[in-house]
């Protein structure tokens, strides 16, 4: 097998280099170049984090944009490298729904609440010749104060989609 194929697959599934216990440590690091749109009342929105993952059912890529929001917990340092967290989690065999929940749950541990929306394009329908080849799948997850507040969720959606 050519070395570049091996290198490609190693990069594609590089998320497995991190043990689950190490993932929360990514949030302690300083952020590196994330496009943060901070909003009043402690709401922070990262409106466009691109990701690539692999469907665990078909071993084909899916890709898209993660939109992440959280409420700052004034008793802790704000989460660090959210973009890196999204990248690491997406570089594993995944279902989009699970990926959305994983990002949200990890952020919830360092914030007063988290909101995550993933938009995903799958190659599975295209390869299978289905007519829905241009379908974009959207998943959401909420934790903490976002779960009980329609107003917070609406603010998140408005800010996340503006970018």
From TrEMBL:
Tell me which SUPFAM superfamilies the record gives: Tetrahydrobiopterin biosynthesis enzymes-like
Q: What is the lineage of its organism?
A: Eukaryota, Metazoa, Porifera, Demospongiae, Heteroscleromorpha
Q: What class of enzyme is it?
A: hydrolase
Q: Where does the GTP cyclohydrolase I domain lie?
A: 2-160
Q: What family does the Swiss-Prot or TrEMBL record give for this protein?
A: Belongs to the GTP cyclohydrolase I family.
Q: Name one Pfam family in it.
A: GTP_cyclohydroI
Q: Which UniProt keywords apply?
A: Hydrolase
Identify the EC number(s): 3.5.4.16
Any GO molecular function = GTP binding
Query: In terms of domain of life, where is this protein from?
Result: Eukaryota
GO cellular component terms attached to this protein's record: cytoplasm
For this protein, the record's Gene3D superfamilies field holds:
3.30.1130.10
Q: What is any one GO biological process for this UniProt entry?
A: tetrahydrobiopterin biosynthetic process
| Biological pathway | Cofactor biosynthesis; 7,8-dihydroneopterin triphosphate biosynthesis; 7,8-dihydroneopterin triphosphate from GTP: step 1/1
Name recorded for this polypeptide: GTP cyclohydrolase 1
């Amino acid at each position: 097998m050519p070395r570049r194929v091996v290198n490609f697959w190693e990069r594609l599934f590089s998320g497995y280099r991190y043990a689950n216990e190490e993932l929360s440590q990514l949030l302690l690091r300083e952020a590196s170049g994330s496009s943060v749109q901070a909003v009043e009342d402690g709401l922070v929105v990262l409106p466009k984090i691109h990701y690539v993952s692999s469907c665990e059912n078909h071993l084909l890529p899916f890709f898209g944009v993660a939109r992440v929001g959280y409420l700052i917990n004034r008793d802790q340092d704000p989460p660090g490298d959210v973009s890196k967290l999204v990248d690491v989690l997406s570089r594993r065999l995944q279902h989009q729904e699970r990926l959305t929940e994983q990002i949200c749950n990890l952020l919830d541990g360092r914030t007063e609440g988290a909101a995550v929306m993933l938009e995903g394009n799958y190659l599975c329908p295209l390869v299978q010749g289905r007519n829905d080849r241009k379908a974009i799948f959207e998943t959401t997850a909420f934790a903490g104060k976002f779960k009980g507040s329609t107003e917070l969720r609406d603010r998140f959606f408005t800010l996340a989609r503006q970018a």
